[in-house]
Amino acid sequence: MxxxxxxxxxxxxxxATAALHQALAVLQADNHQLQxxxxxxxxxxxxxxxxxxxxxxxxxxxxxxxxxxxxxxKERLQAxxxxxxxGFSAGAAALWCGLNTASAGAGKALLCYGxxxxxxxxxxxxxxxxxxWSDEQHFDVRALxxxxxxxxxxxxxxxxxxxxxxxxxxxxYQPDAAAEFWQRCQHWLTxxxx
Length: 194
What we know:
By secondary structure, the protein is an alpha/beta fold. The protein has one domain: 3-Layer(aba) Sandwich (Rossmann fold), CATH 3.40.50.1820. It is built from 6 helices and 6 strands. A 6-stranded parallel beta sheet has the order 2-1-3-4-5-6, with helices on both faces. The two termini are 25 Å apart.
């Protein structure tokens, strides 16, 4: 019998929504040995679902923003070591900041539209990482991809969809692209690449 695999999911600023739980349940149903842990920002603890991106972002910043979230993710990684990491937006950036100190070869990470990674581009991940980029309005995605090419553990993909395209609560949500993402994520759990 194979060893259980642990997947740590660092959510975006909307947190562990019902839609995310549903998608993760499908992943787990097809991978019975998969144990899933979810980490979400403090701002999501008392609100079932934010009405829009702006309200979610305001609450996120008021509760310490990315710096606070990085600490939460780091604590979770230390308390519950995982060999698979999946992050979305702020969660992707928080995981990126923890991957330069994680033990080498411990697993792999899939980081989706983690735009704030650009603030920490010099950090070198110690795990194999796939960054899945979306179209962004606030920075040049192509320039960031070129800057990050220096990291040997990193693979990058750019999907031509808006930020948040996987999350039904985000204004950038794209149902067909989200469905394709979750299908490919299923494959990523057992394959080398996304």
